[in-house]
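Listing S7. Sequence submitted for prediction.
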Amino acid sequence: MAKEETNAQGTTLRLESGGLGSILEAPRSAPGASARPALTPQVKSYTDRPLQVAIVGAGFIADFHLAILKDVPGVEVAVIVDPDRARAEALAQRFDVARVETSIGALKDAAIDVAHLLVPPDLHVKLTEELFALGIGAFVEKPVALSGDEARGLAESARTRGLPLGGNHNNLHHPAFLRVMQRIEAGEIGRVEHVQVTLSVPLMQLDAGDFAHWMFRTPKNIVYEQAVHPLCWVHALVGRLRGVQTTLLGTRELNPGQKFVDRWSISGQGERGTMQMYLAFGQGFTRTTLNVIGSDGSLEADIHHNAVTGETKSVYLDFWNSFLATHGRGKALKRDARAVVRDYLKFTLGLGRREDAFFAGMRGSIQSFYKALASGAPLPTDGAQAAEVLDWCDAIAAAAPAAAPPAAALPAPCAPRAREVVVLGATGFIGRRTVAKLLEANLPVSIVARRAHALPPEIEAAIRDGRVRFLRASLEDKAALTSVLSGAHTVIQLATGGGDTWEKVQRSMVDGTRDVAEAALAHGVKRFVYVSSIAALYTGRDAPEREITDSTDVDPEPEQRPLYSRGKMAAEAVLLSMHRARELPLVIVRPGVVMGAGTLPQHSGLGLWQRDNHCIGWGLGDNPLPIVWVDDVADALRALARYEKDDLHGQALNLCAKTTLTAQECVAELARVTGRNITFHPRGLGLSQMMEIGKYCVKKAGRRPGVEFPSWRDLKSRALVTTFACDLARAKLGWKPVEEREALLERCVRVYKPRS
């Protein structure tokens, strides 16, 4: 049901109830334009048959779209498109999608009605236009484009072709925001006058040093990646942009020349009110709030915790008015807190659908898009509305520092050199240090990577000056692997692969490593070094050997261990079989708990990090850990590349320092040097297992798919109570890791001290 009211300023408010939850809309014009185009183009009817849908992009967010689409009536997902066919096939198998393609062009004869575009933002405009050219409508992940003008261009293209263009502004469907809008529409706080938003969040990619991610490529990208969410609220509440003032509160340099603005302060004017916003990225504490101040009251939404409170004027004296305001807030918070617990338990026990705020917002956005298509109603967020949100983004992003000029293309690799060392996984934590150590020894180095833009700056510099050859391949591309190992003397296989199912782990970690070894044999490689892990061993208190030696075999019960450990065990078994049957010149290395600059401080070897500042121990955490500094691992790999004898072939080398450092001590030191409230929680293994069994029982009662009984063996192994002998590395390679307590703390823990 919709109604129109005119406020005191003469602005027409269109109030709608239903799937979107009443977003304030006003007829208005784009900046510099005389009139705003129609909100939604006249599109062809989609009501006569089930809609055929394509998913373009098989990344992380695709799982959410597919999980929601399977419950949308009148919609059938017909095809998944991704250049990485193996990734697309795995996703298609998981969601029972019949067809997989590697390009949009292959959809020409597929009779697709709508495609969900789930690719990096810089591809949105190009690929949306490709879809339109094929007569396919688009539902595009935010941001629809990288400027308001680009979005308006897409909207016009959709209008002229009679195709739908929807934007996934899922935060407009966040349960807390919907409740705020419902109360505003009910007239609870009168006329909206001012909006305050705080978005202070951690960024996993930032903490992990994944600076190649799209959001870090230019300083303004973070606005389009993250600020679209709160700006959707701002646009819905105060309307289109009138003006904005932006102050940069914090800037850091991720890599030389690569700037990142991590804190922003914004003040702005919309057509119906004013706004203030604080944006902070890479923060230790999550805080996402929305405050709306009206002429007769206020509303506050804790978006992160899905809670809404408010205050209005009353007829009573001030002291009683204050009591009613604070008492009402308390009641509202308790009510919303109970709802969060109730919804979680109902879903876990199979008594209700999934209602966590992110999933509910995604579901509301997708379902309302298809509901509008089926009924012929205006789309909840069309291209014109997305453009207006992007106008806010454009104005804010204009304050960002200029991006570094694009680098020239990388040089083509030269011919292999004598004693060429080929490193797979060179861009990872251990790989970066290994390449550095090899270069220090003046060894010729080649690296194998999937993408050029993901290269660390020090490696890219070495490629440009000719010290490193860049070879493009992946573990899933057998033909490319065979090609890039031509001329190699030594291969260091650090590339892990992985996945959330055994099929994925088998394909990447095990089969991929086998393919690398096959290529090494074909090209006569003199040494093949496989970097495994002590996670492949059984290290529980009841292990047959209290001291793990280099000759200790992998865990004989791999089915009781997690996918990563099973993958390492299986890869070792395959390679050892190739060594025995075909003389693969194999050396296996098993690093311990590898720590140091360049990875997250929340290492799983210390315990289960329930939050980034709460570590639950694998036991009491008072036993010495097999810690090793990352540079010492790299030293051992360099030594293997230079080692002339073949007496290590077919053997495994443990790489652990002899130290007295415990998990409790490492976490305590981490808290001290960072100045944060980081706490270690010792917990007996028996209690942890009982709690895991309890979770298992609840999930089984709710008929959750894929639930496995918690492994007591794996829990015991994670405690790492055994000691490790590293005799071969010390005797044959002259390996001398850092072991003195203070020196190890300095290199492995104190590196996280905040920089001034």
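Caption to Listing S7: primary sequence and predicted structure tokens for the chain studied. The radius of gyration is 29 Å. Residues 413-525 form a domain with the Rossmann fold fold (CATH 3.40.50.720).
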